[in-house]
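Quick one, tokens below:
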């Protein structure tokens, strides 16, 4: 987890600087829902705008020019950094504008503004049905809206929300209703791609019209949690005694709107319940300096501990990992899941190890095939493998 380059600006006393800092922090943080990470060039450009050296329009022009002048061979085929940079700058632009209309057309328009030139379906409803394997559902999928009924379903949800009255409701009731509304809107999954980012931007704009001052870093730091909470709000499996619930989404909203400090951990949402049974390293710190845990002597036979991280069991079988190493794996997976990319510095901050120790951990995980190197995100980047034998 890298240091947020915008934290210092959010703490400024100058209101315009603070607002620009929040806007950019949110815009960049939302790219994490699709495992994307903006470039250092985008970060530098954003800082120039936050400091008032350039306008948002000038920032967007710089980003567009940067990719126009960069030869295609500079980037890998699977490199989506350009998408992350351009979409982040466009989110910053939209969140900086006060204009808003609560309507399906506005929702479609936001998608078009965000992804024009990125997706050929920008601003258009999908024409086929979709499924998506979800880590939090152990590989299962949410039942998304039927392609033949998208327009009607979208219009119905908007009409229902327009007719709803928040008058005389307690804040708990307001939070609950907002969670229901946004989870249902997201469940339709109107677009082929980009649904969560579009929904988040639309929702922030809508919340402002309701009088909420959405100026904190909750979206920026918990974008993947937000998506997983939306997933859990739309999944039921009666055979496994799993029911759709907005409880996780409501925790997120309470932090966002009421500045509460509820713990937002992806592991608590996993339907297997496996991750909630594990020791939380954040609350049970072990002082390595004073307790000198011998990683070689404290072996755990993973044949009896199968880590379920998706549609397959990760049977590390004959390999021997210490309890501490297993905990590090859990912490990393809880933070990054399958979709997010991470590097050595991210791991150092997250698990609290020095560079040499993290290098050894990376080597172990690569050797057994738990993680794999990825291209298109800079040197030394990794992600968890979807299928581990």
């Amino acid at each position: 987890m890298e240091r947020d380059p915008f934290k210092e600006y959010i703490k400024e006393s100058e209101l315009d600087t603070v607002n620009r800092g929040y806007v950019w922090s949110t815009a960049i943080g939302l790219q994490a829902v699709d495992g994307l990470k903006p470039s250092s060039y985008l970060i530098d450009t954003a800082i120039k705008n936050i400091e008032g050296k350039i306008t948002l329009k000038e920032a967007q022009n710089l980003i567009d020019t940067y990719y126009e002048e960069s030869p295609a061979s500079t980037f890998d085929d699977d490199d989506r950094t350009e998408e992350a940079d351009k979409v982040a700058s466009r989110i910053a632009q939209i969140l900086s504008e006060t204009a808003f209309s609560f309507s399906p057309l506005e929702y479609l328009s936001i998608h078009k503004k965000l992804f024009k030139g990125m997706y050929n379906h920008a601003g258009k409803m999908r024409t086929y049905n979709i499924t998506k394997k979800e880590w939090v559902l152990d590989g299962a999928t949410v039942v998304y809206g039927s392609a033949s009924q998208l327009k009607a379903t979208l219009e119905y949800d908007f009409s229902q929300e327009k007719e709803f009255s928040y008058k005389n409701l307690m804040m708990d009731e307001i939070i609950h209703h907002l969670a229901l509304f946004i989870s249902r809107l997201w469940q339709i999954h109107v677009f082929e791609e980009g649904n969560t980012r579009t929904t988040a931007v639309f929702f922030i704009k809508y919340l402002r019209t309701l009088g909420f001052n959405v100026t904190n870093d909750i979206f920026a730091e918990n974008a993947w949690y937000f998506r997983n909470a939306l997933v859990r709000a739309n999944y039921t499996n009666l055979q496994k005694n799993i029911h759709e619930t907005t409880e996780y989404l409501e925790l997120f909203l309470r932090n966002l709107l009421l500045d509460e400090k509820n713990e937002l951990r992806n592991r608590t949402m996993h339907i297997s319940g496996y991750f909630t049974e594990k020791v939380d390293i954040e609350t049970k710190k072990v002082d390595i300096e004073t307790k000198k845990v011998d990683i070689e002597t404290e072996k755990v036979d993973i044949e009896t501990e199968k880590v379920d991280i998706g549609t397959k069991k990760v049977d590390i079988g004959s390999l021997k990992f210490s309890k501490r190493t297993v905990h590090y794996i859990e912490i990393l997976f809880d933070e990054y899941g399958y979709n997010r990319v991470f590097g050595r510095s991210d791991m150092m901050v997250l698990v609290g190890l020095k560079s040499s120790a993290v290098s050894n951990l990376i080597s172990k995980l690569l050797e057994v095939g738990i993680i794999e190197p990825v291209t298109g995100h800079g040197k030394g980047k990794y992600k968890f493998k979807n299928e581990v034998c």
